[in-house]
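Researcher: I'd like a structural prediction for the single chain below. Treat it as a standalone chain; there are no partners to consider.
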Amino acid sequence: MKVIIVSDTHYHNECLNELQNQYKDADFFVHCGDLEDNADDYPGWLFVCGNCDYDPKLPQYRILDLEGNHRILVMHSHNCKMYRYQSLIHDALIHHCDIVCFGHTHVAEVQREQNITLINPGSIWFSRSKSPGSYAVLEIINKKIKVEIVYNDGKKEWFTKD
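Model: Treating it as a single chain, here is the predicted structure.
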């Protein structure tokens, strides 16, 4: 199972088609909010609403059930104020999810807390960290979670959890 994860493209959405062409073997393409465009123009992508999205059809969150082994909560996280991680973990537990994909901060990161993997792909075009823009590749092989953060400069970081 392979999931391509982006967030915060803010109308710089040419990358979405490029990623679909690059990862033809992906099972899901997920956008964690702030598309700022018509989601119907990007078939094959699953979107959630970010704080800069105004399409009333976009849901606030989505849940993906992967092979019955993992459940992914996808949300933007702009409603998480002071305690972002605690709020994301709380929402994951309510929805019986063990993976959360989120955006809003424009900072790529992968963390594991309370048996929940938190994945922020960053922003593919405008990072708010010292790193270049980025996206994430989530792979699940035999229940094992592997996350790769791919930066625009070609650098990659991996996180693996059994």
